[in-house]
User: What shape does this take?
Amino acid sequence: QQPVQSPQAVILREGEDAVINCSSSKALYSVHWYRQKHGEAPVFLMILLKGGEQKGHEKISASFNEKKQQSSLYLTASQLSYSGTYFCGTEGGNEKLTFGTGTRLTIIP
Amino acid sequence: GAVVSQHPSRVICKSGTSVKIECRSLDFQATTMFWYRQFPKQSLMLMATSNEGSKATYEQGVEKDKFLINHASLTLSTLTVTSAHPEDSSFYICSAWVAGGPGEQFFGPGTRLTVL
Assistant: This one.
């Protein structure tokens, strides 16, 4: 089953923070986060492996709670370039990614 | 990072014709590649796993006779949409793992297929 992301959409003013959640009904080996701009392929942001790790990438970080089968993506001091649709991709140990329902993020000046 | 290319980037065809999409790993070898389909405003849905030198494995609900996959070399996988119909119009994206890497999947730029 497809992981569920929340919220479905969010509008932020430049400089504001956002949290995007990804929840799976299956046990996870890793969680991948991607950002996709309209008409383009997804761009890799980060990967988190089981073990409850947390990662950071510039002003974008993420956490992975293996027991809860959840991951969260944190965007701080958002920039206009952060606009797009964010997808989590979950992997259960078979190298296949199952993408989440997506979260559309709009940053306004 | 590793680079995956796709060709063509856009294709428009008539209903009933076949269309071939190529996916290449440019600077690494990929024993496994993945094909996804994405309809407007929806998520990416895995169609099949392409394995070099062996048959592709298809996800449930994907017709293997309609979506032919060939992984002839370690750098090339092709997806052929046979007898395309308007409902096959979609964004097709391939990806590949780098063996021994941290687990990141590299995506091609995608192919926009429009069937008239």
